[in-house]
Design goal:
single chain; 301 residues; alpha/beta; six-stranded mixed β-sheet; four-stranded antiparallel β-sheet
Length: 301
């Protein structure tokens, strides 16, 4: 049996004329937080639905804990915690009823841990879900997702629309769950600073294609942001091998390049440019360079 928690091979999914997923293959290793990043409509939620068995692969395969989640839903779902962006909780239930309802489906429910999170978030267990604010709903949904200590935690845009304090509390709870228990999480978000803060490994999706994957440290070390000064003003730069994006600001340019850092520097020198500053690019800068609308059309391996 594979040691990977999730294995996806050649997964494609089309809705009408839209290719939501295009030959996606990836492995999710245990004990790590895997960030899933992409613009709205990139295919993140469609991938999540396949992992949950809500969609059956039309092409390719999905295995979670070595099982097909469509054919073995009970065996797979009892080991998964899930929090969706919609936070579609039963509104007629009180918070304590929601906890008891969820507990009934999970023999591994950790009641002291649930009570600890309820106390941490300051949730009133006598309130009905429909009376909760957006942030409180997210907190209640997270408790229901993590209190049974799932082996795999799936988080689809968990902090969208929430204020900074609630986002911090939710992210801290997720990090503790994974770090303290050695569990696995897939964290989907368009808030790249949060993904960078939380993730060990990153999958980047653009228009259904997996365009970049690897450990966060390796990805950041493999991308440099160069500040370049030209002694004569330039309105454009030619496409250079290894250069992913270039943004002009007067005689200065901000250039994001991949591992061909030395080659890019030499090409810029020949064009009359001087690198005045260099650092590893942030995940946000890498994302914009690779999938942003204004990226250069540079062929890459």
């Amino acid at each position: 049996m594979s040691e990977n928690v999730v294995e996806v091979r050649g997964l494609s999914r089309q809705f009408g004329k839209t290719m939501a997923l295009d030959e996606v293959s990836l492995d999710v290793r245990p004990g790590l937080v895997h960030g899933l990043v992409g613009a709205n409509g990139a295919g993140k939620s469609t991938l999540m639905k396949h992992l949950l068995g809500l969609l059956k692969p039309k092409q390719g395969s999905v295995r979670v804990f070595g099982l097909d989640p469509v054919k073995h839903p009970v065996s797979v779902l009892e080991r998964i915690g899930y929090l969706s962006e919609e936070r579609d909780l039963p509104e007629w239930m009180r918070v304590d009823e929601l906890m008891r309802y969820t507990r009934a489906y999970h023999s591994s429910w950790d009641q002291p841990y649930a009570e600890h999170l309820l106390d941490t978030f300051g949730l009133d267990i006598a309130k009905k879900v429909k009376q909760l604010s957006k942030g409180m709903r997210a907190q209640a949904g997270l408790i229901a997702a993590v209190a049974h200590r799932p082996e795999l935690l799936l988080l689809d845009e968990p902090s969208t629309g929430l204020d900074a304090v609630v986002r911090r509390d939710i992210l801290n709870a997720i990090i503790r769950t994974v770090a303290e228990d050695g569990r696995t999480a897939i964290f989907s978000s368009h808030l790249l600073d949060e993904v960078e803060q939380m993730s060990d490994h990153v999958f980047m999706i653009d228009q259904g294609k997996l365009v970049l994957q690897g450990s966060l440290d390796d990805i950041k070390e493999g991308h440099q942001l160069l500040s370049v000064r030209f002694f004569t003003e330039r309105d454009e730069l030619p496409s250079l091998e290894g250069m992913l994006s270039a943004q002009q600001c007067g005689n200065h340019w901000r250039i994001v390049c991949n591992g061909a850092n030395g080659q890019v520097r030499e090409s810029l020198r020949r064009l009359g440019g001087e690198v005045t500053h260099a650092r590893n690019a942030t995940l946000q800068e890498i994302f914009v360079a690779r999938v942003g609308r204004n990226r250069l059309a540079v062929s890459e391996e």
